[in-house]
Amino acid sequence: MDDFFKTKVGFTIGLLAAVFAFKPLVDSNSDVGFSIFQLKITIGYAYIFLTAFLGLAVYFISLQFASSRHIKSLVAISDACYSVALATPPVFLAFWLITISLSYIGSYVSQIPEYAINFLTGVLTSILASMIYSFLRRSIKSKFLAAEKQQERKADFEILARAKQLADIGMFDMSVLESSKVVESALRRLLETRGISAKKGTMIELVQLSERNRILSSEEINFLNEIRQKRNESVHLIDTIDKQSANRVLHISRELLAKLDAVSSSSGYEWLERNRYKVIQLLKEGDLKKCQPALDRLKEAWKNRDGAVWLELTDFFEVALTSNPELIVSMFENDEELLDSWLERAGAQLFTDFSGREKERLTRVRSVIISQLKKYIAGTNSRSRREVADKILSVIEESEVREID
To answer: DSSP assignment, residue 31?
Structure first.
């Protein structure tokens, strides 16, 4: 049971106790309320509704305690009941306020019939209730997932620490086995977050699924294959793993775990949107090291783009290319397929004038990108990055600013 779950349980029971403490006050004012469609809605009814759902939340939490394993459906139901209970007081007060306000307006505008006022009150309150419930449900769910992820990360690092200890005392085979457990677990979680069933798959099947669904880059796939090979050697052969191999597997496991953690985050696009201003400022500075976390998210957002998301990423690509083309070059350096998928849309993404007022600015942006790319190509010593930059330059030079009529 994680810390967030413990907190939620304590808070739920504490809230239930507070509700019962208010019962004498509610009893003395139970008939106070308002009418809509000739139906009297009172404080007493709201209190019963709140208490019922809060009690249900406690009941389903208790069932989770009684269960020998983690049951997601029980957590989902308890979260839903908890959210409804928390939403009840503000929705009731809003319902009351809207009813009074519209009735007051109706008293001055006689042309508005009573049923229309009641109907409008119901619609407005329903919208507000839906918004409050959705917000609370998302908030609880996101906190639970964050706590669950933190718990998993803690367990992973504990295993890696144990692998390091095993390597230090000369048990290199066991060290490799422990390191590989962490990577396999993280990879399985990553696939599941992408809706790919991987509960019973072997390590090689997990790697193949990741490659087939283009979840990881070719470099990361090579890392996984190297770890898998070393693990097989440690199991089937005697004294084949030396200290250098064990330390390398440990190092790769740490590096890959960090990458898997970045990839498995809820959404690269959502993260970029939440931190848009900061990311844009970082990209303008052009420091590759400082920008690396943002570039990882941008790569993830492009890899998992959906609908018109690829257009929403335009600003990030534009700023990076005009500030320091190496940012985008390094991002695509070891993933040719992903690079090609971006180049297919780069022209339309960067140089389409949707508003009809951007043609001159986009023309200048195109010239700056071409100039920056040529400057970078002339100065870089990396052959692989030069090849990527050449590909990008070729596409940019062939692209033209296009206006949408």
So the answer is: T
pTM: 0.42
- Let me know how long the chain is: 405
* Phi, psi values for residue 303, rounded to 5°: -65, -35
Number of H helices, E strands in the chain: 18, 4
The letter for the amino acid at 74 is L
Q: 3-state class of 40 per DSSP?
A: strand
The total domain count for the chain is: 3
Domain that holds residue 64: 3-148
Identify whether residues 129 and 181 lie together within a single domain: no
User: Nearest Cα to 295, choosing from 254, 337, 252, 338?
Assistant: 338
Pair 22, 71 in one domain: yes
Closest residue by Cα to residue 167 from 251, 277, 110: 251
248 and 289 together in one domain:
no
299 forms beta bridges with none
Which stretch of DSSP H or E encloses residue 209? Answer: helix 203-212
Whole-number Å distance between alpha carbons of 309 and 314: 9
Cα–Cα distance measured from residue 328 to residue 305, given in angstroms and rounded to the nearest whole number:
17
Together in a domain, 313 and 199: no
Distance CA 204, CA 198 (A): 11
Instruction: Please name the helix (run of DSSP H) or strand (run of DSSP E) that holds residue 402, with its range, or none.
Output: strand 402-403
The CATH number given to whatever domain includes residue 175 is: 1.20.120.330
Per-residue model confidence as pLDDT tens digits over 243-284: 887 787 787 777 766 665 555 544 677 778 778 888 999 999
With respect to residue 178, please indicate whether it lies within any of the assigned structural domains. Answer: yes
